[in-house]
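Long-time lurker, first post. I've been practising inverse folding by hand and with some scripts of my own, and I keep getting stuck on stretches where the structure tokens seem ambiguous. Below is the full token string for one chain I'm working on. Before anyone asks, I'm not after the true native sequence, just a reasonable design that respects the backbone. If someone could post their per-position residues I'd love to compare against what I wrote down in my notebook.
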């Protein structure tokens, strides 16, 4: 590898041109001569793609469609999801509201299963689901803590 053509993130070298970098976040000091190290912050690419070495932020959405163990979620690559990401699928069991304002303070959920992203576009993701019971439209999907 030559300087400036690769980045290292979690031990993986990625060709910068593969994701079309057009801007970069200031990197931490290099730890290995000849390689550039970039921070994990999202970085826009030429085609609007994100830098594959980014901080893992929580993504939360809802199940929009169910077909057997294949679910369609209402969140996609715009929120940071990518193929291979794992999500917890949960069902709301109770809503806690403020007695004065009647605004929802918190929704209590019960985890019913897990899902892995198999396809993703800008606004939706297809996932393969496995769990203790069938998923339903409206169930919550949230990335697992990583």
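-- Answer (accepted) --
I ran through it position by position. Result:
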């Amino acid at each position: 590898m030559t300087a400036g053509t690769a980045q290292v993130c979690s031990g993986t070298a990625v060709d910068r041109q593969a994701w079309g970098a057009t801007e970069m976040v200031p990197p931490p000091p290099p730890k290995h001569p000849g390689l550039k190290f970039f921070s994990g912050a999202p970085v826009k690419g030429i085609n609007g793609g994100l830098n594959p070495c980014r901080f893992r932020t929580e993504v939360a959405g809802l199940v929009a469609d169910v077909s057997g163990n294949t679910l369609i979620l209402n969140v996609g690559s715009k929120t940071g999801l990518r193929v291979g990401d794992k999500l917890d699928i949960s069902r709301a069991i109770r809503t806690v509201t403020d007695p004065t304002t009647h605004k929802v303070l918190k929704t209590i959920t019960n985890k019913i299963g897990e899902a892995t992203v198999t396809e993703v576009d800008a606004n939706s993701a297809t996932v393969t689901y496995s769990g203790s019971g069938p998923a339903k439209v409206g169930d919550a999907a949230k990335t697992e803590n990583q």
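A couple of notes from the structure itself: The first strand starts at residue 6 and ends at 9. The two ends are 29 Å apart (CA to CA). Happy to go over any region you disagree with.
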